[in-house]
Amino acid sequence: MDRFLSVSATGDWAAAARTCADGLASIEPAESGTQHIGFFYVTDAMAPDTGSIATLLRQLTPISCWIGAVGSGVVADGREYHGNPALSVMVGTLPEQSFRLISGLSGDAGGLAGADLDWARRVTPAFGIIHGNPGYPDVVDAVERLSLDAGGELGGCFLLGGLAALPVPGAVIAGAEDGGALAGILFGPGTEVASALSQGCSPLGGVHRVTEANGDVIMSLDDRPALEVLKEDVGELLARDLSRLAGYVHAAFPVTGSDTGDYMVRNLLAIDKDRGWIGIGGTADYGDPLLFVRRDPESARTDLIRMVSRLKSRLPDSGIRGGLYFSCVARGPSLFGGPETESGIIQRELGPFPMAGFLGGGEISDARLYAYTGVLVLFC
Description:
Helices cover 23% and strands 38% of the residues. By secondary structure, the chain is an alpha+beta fold. Strands 1-6-2-3-10-11 form a six-stranded mixed sheet, covered by helices on one side. Strands 5-4-23-22-26-13 form a six-stranded mixed sheet, covered by helices on one side. Strands 7-12-8-9-24-25 form a six-stranded mixed sheet, with helices on one face. The radius of gyration is 21 Å and the shape is globular. The chain starts with a strand and ends with a strand.
């Protein structure tokens, strides 16, 4: 199966799984030397049934390798499901020894071990699709540890994916079992992909330097009161009513070495008008670069189209076989509330292709955890 195949369904979990299995009926057993892989994503209404869904899909299809996660919504071919029980599935075929399912990883217990580590050392995987359970406090450490373990002499494996929307058992799946803190699939050389990140924001001013901070409180930027710098960047109109900044203006930390201007967005949580300090949803240290950004529907749509356009110019002549999209729960209908969804914009710009994905509690790109972003992965 050179081209991937995707299907989706709504209803109770068993009916939806059977409908999706029926949609995959054209898939023959894998030829010698190849193996089918399947990605499945469910809305939170199906969260208690992820293990059962994986088991039923294994029984009803010739696909034994399933990777899944729970989202607040799910992405299908140019459309999205929100607020109702829904299941989105994408299946492809790859060389048998070119990938490996992983699960049960955590930052405390360590990274890859045993046969998984042996495989990684022998193959040196180029990238991975991973899903994290936000119920584990060490999930971010687990992502970093996995990248280092899998990357070996390369220094780090390029990991893409997202955190599930709910911190519950079975929020991430690999095979037919609860994946623990972190689960997914690693790919060896030979599987060609293209990926890109949409920040969903627009910078309001230049990059500043943190010159005094204590944890999540920033006292000064560029040796000036942090609030003074913030007011200057947002402009006079917003500076007169700081309550309007909530949910609209955020702090962002540029990613060192990024050639696409990526940054890590963090919420503005508090403002101390008397001392000129600001509180953020993260920590800052002396010397850190920081800028302020705005997030609104126009900025998000413009940035998504820009991201897709740049990615399109990098695609090989062979085209797109299939794609996965990981977005933030704070995006979706609350940000793209018009007639066109994020996945609809992507397929309008790139043309139709099999697609699946979910909206979760954080997005992973290059083994870093982002917020308010969209991560697109295309199999070519």
